[in-house]
Amino acid sequence: MDDTDLDALRARYDRALRRDAAPDEPGARVERDGAVVRQTSGRGGWSGVVWSGFASAAEADAAIAEQLAHYGALGMPFEWKLYGHDQPADLGDRLTAAGFLAEEPETVMVAEVRALDRTPVWPEGVTVREITDPGDLAGVLDAHRRVFGGDQEPLRRRLAAQLAEAPDTVRLSLVLAGELPVCAARLELNSESGFAGLWGGGTLPEWRGRGIYRALVAHRAARAERAGTRWLHVDASAESRPILRRLGFHPLTVTTPYLSPR
C-alpha cells in the first residue's frame, strides 16, 4: 500500500469513525459541538472527544476550555483521543497545559480483510468459545483482569449491554486452556462505515509466544468477512505492532489518549 492509498484511507477512517461517528455502545450519544465531535456514555462507559477540526490555535484553546466546562458540569471525567495528524500540530501540548494527562500512544493500523489470512491455527491445548449471552461474561472479565489488571466493571456493563441490546455490533471470543481463561478478544462491527475494530487480545504471560494472538486476528478477520466488512483497524501497542505488520496491517497514524484533569 503506497502513501497515496494510505492518505485516502486515513481520510476515510477520519470521516467514518471520527467526524461522522456513531455511538459505539448502547445508551451513548454522539454530539457535534462546533469543531468537536464527542461521545457521552449513559452508563459509565467511555466518554470523550473523538474528532476535532480547528482552524487556529485560538479556536483549539477555546474548544478545550468548553469541553472541560461541559463535562465538568456533568461531573464526568473524559478522554480527548488525539491523533497524530490532528491540527494544530501542538494540540497535545495545549491539552497538557490545560491539565490533561497523556497516556501511552498507540499506532492505528489497518488492513483490508480480503488481504489477510482468515484461517486460524490454534496452538495445542486451547479451545475457543464464542460468548453471546450476557450471563457468560465471567471468563472474559477474568482474562482481562489477569492480563491488564484494573476494574473490569465498566467493560462488563458495556459488553452486557451490547450482547443484550445490540448483538450485531460485537463478536466476543474467549480462549481457554481447560477451564482457565487465557485470552479474550472482540470484533466491534460498524456496518455502515466499512470498518470493524479489533479490541482486547491480551494473553496470559505463560501462554504468550504460541500464536494465540495471531490466530485470534485470523479468526476475527473471518468473522468480519462474513459480516461484509472491508477494513479492520486496531489501536496497536508496541508489543502487537510488529505482529500485525507481519500479518499484513499498515500503520495509519498514532493515537494518544489524553485524560481530563480530575
Automatic annotation (TrEMBL):
Keyword Transcription regulation applies: no
PROSITE patterns in alphabetical order: GNAT (PS51186)
Keyword Transferase: yes
Species in which this protein is naturally found: Streptomyces sedi
Gene3D superfamilies: 3.40.630.30
InterPro entries to which the protein is assigned, alphabetical: Acyl_CoA_acyltransferase (IPR016181), GNAT_dom (IPR000182)
Domain of life, per lineage: Bacteria
Name of protein: GNAT family N-acetyltransferase
Molecular functions (GO terms): acyltransferase activity, transferring groups other than amino-acyl groups
N-acetyltransferase domain span: 126-262
Keywords from the named record: Transferase
